[in-house]
Amino acid sequence: MATEYKHPKLGIIRLQRRVGCKRISISVARSGRISVTHPWYVSRRAALAFVEQKVEWIGAARQRVQQAVKPSLIGEGYRTRSHTLRVDCNAPKCGYMISNSEVLVCLVSGVAADSEQGQQVIRTALTEALRAEAHKVLPEMVERLARQHGLSYNGITIKNIRSKWGNCSAVNHLNFSLYLMLLPDELVEMVVLHELCHTVHKNHSAEFHTLLNSLLGGRERELNLALRKYRTSL
Ligand SMILES: [Zn+2]
Q1: Where are the domain boundaries for CATH 3.30.2010.10 in the chain?
Q2: What is the number of alpha carbons within 13 Å of residue 221 lying toward its C-beta?
Q3: For residue 99, how many other CB atoms are within 10 A of its CB?
Q4: Backbone dihedral region of 62: left (phi > 0), alpha (psi from -120 to 50 degrees) or beta?
Q5: How far apart are CA 29 and CA 31, in angstroms?
Q6: What global pTM score does this model have?
Q7: Selection from 99, 180, 97 nearest residue 142 by Cα
Q8: How far is the centre of ligand 1, averaged over its atoms, from the C-alpha of 113 (Å)?
Q9: Ligand 1 geometric centre to CA of 20 (Å)
Q10: Cα of 203 from ligand 1 centre, angstroms
Q11: Which pLDDT score is estimated for 152?
Q12: Neighbours of 137 (CB within 10 A)
C-alpha cells in the first residue's frame, strides 16, 4: 500500500511498503515526484529517517533529472554546421524551408518562437537541416577513412537515432545518427572510425580498442571524454 508524506523541503513523497523488497530505495521521476520503496519490516518512520539523511542527494538528483528533461530554448541566429536559423513570426501558416545556408521557420502570429509549439517547429526544421548536412558530410568521410585505413563496409544509413551515435550491423552496414552533425569534425571522425573498426572486431574487446586507438593516433580516451559533453538531441 502506498501512502504520502509532505516533506518540508522536498514536497510530497510517495512511500510504498513492499513484500520481497530488501532495502530502502529512493527514485525521482521526471515530474520531480519522489518515491520511496521500503521492505515490509521497515517502519514508515524509519524509511522517512532514511530519506532525511539523503535530503541533499535527493534535491541534487531531482535537479539533474529535470534539467535533463528540459531542453534549452532555440531561437533566431542558432547555427548548425552550415545553416543559420531565421524565424518569421508573422507567416500565413506554420512551416519551414531549408536552403543551403538557412533554415527559415515560419510561425503564424500568436505562436511565439519560445512557445512549446514554436519550439517544436524549430526543432523539426533543424533536425531536417542536420539530416541534410549529414548526407553531405558522412558518406564522403566514411569512404575516405575506410580507404585510408584499408577497411571495407557495406553502405551507410543516416537516421534520427537518439540512443547512440552509430552502429555497425552483422553484415557491416553502418548506421549513423544525424546528431553527429552537432559534433566537431574530429569527434565525428572518431565515431566513424569506431564503427569502421567494428567491421573487423564485432565487440569492444581489447583488440578492438587497440585497433581504434592506433587509428586515432593514441587519442581514443581523450576523444571519448570530449564526446561525453554532447547529446544526441537538439
Ligand atoms: Zn562500438
Answers
A1: 84-227
A2: 2
A3: 9
A4: alpha
A5: 5
A6: 0.72
A7: 180
A8: 38
A9: 37
A10: 7
A11: 97
A12: 19
> What is the rounded CA–CA span in Å between residue 66 and residue 44?
27
Distance in Å from the first CA to the final CA of the chain: 40
Distance 159 CA to ligand 1 centre (A): 17
Cα-to-centroid distance, 167 and ligand 1 (Å): 7
> What phi, psi does 49 have (nearest 5°)?
-65, -35
Cβ atoms 118, 130 nearer than 8 A: no
What is the 61 CA–ligand 1 centroid distance (Å)? 29
Q: How far apart are CA 94 and CA 117, in angstroms?
A: 10
Classified by CATH at the fold level, domain 84-227 comes out as: Zincin-like (3.30.2010)
* pLDDT mean for each 10 residues of the chain (234 residues): 89 92 90 91 94 92 79 92 96 95 96 94 97 98 98 97 94 98 98 98 96 98 95 90
CA–centroid distance, residue 182 to ligand 1 (Å): 19
Gap from CA of 107 to ligand 1 centroid (Å): 41
